[in-house]
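SEQUENCE-TO-STRUCTURE ENTRY
===========================
Question of interest: how does this chain fold, as expressed in backbone structure tokens?
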Amino acid sequence: MEMEQMYTYKCTKCGKLHHPRYIVCQNPDCDGREFEKIPLEGKCRLLTWTRVYNLPEGYMCPWLNFGIVEFENGVRATGQIGFDEGIESGMELIATVGIVKEKTILYKETVVAPQHGFIFQKA
């Protein structure tokens, strides 16, 4: 299966980076509505994290770790932490994109749609 890509969106009017994408630039001094897609990946720093034990139906694991990271360009994003031991705020991570859940859609036939998101690994 082809790997999905995550992006940050650069306002073409003022240059502010956004993730996720907004319709109007979030810079209070700008009203830009056009954005350039820039791949968002690679090195990042873990700002904070949590372990969630009470997962929704469909997750076949006892817990998941989630974190908020800051990329080298200043963009902040959330995602799953792909390991359990030695997690510390401030540590350097590598952001990858992977399937974080499969969504089952029932209509005339069953469709399983992969949901992609960030998975942070040790650098």
Observations:
- The first strand starts at residue 7 and ends at 11.
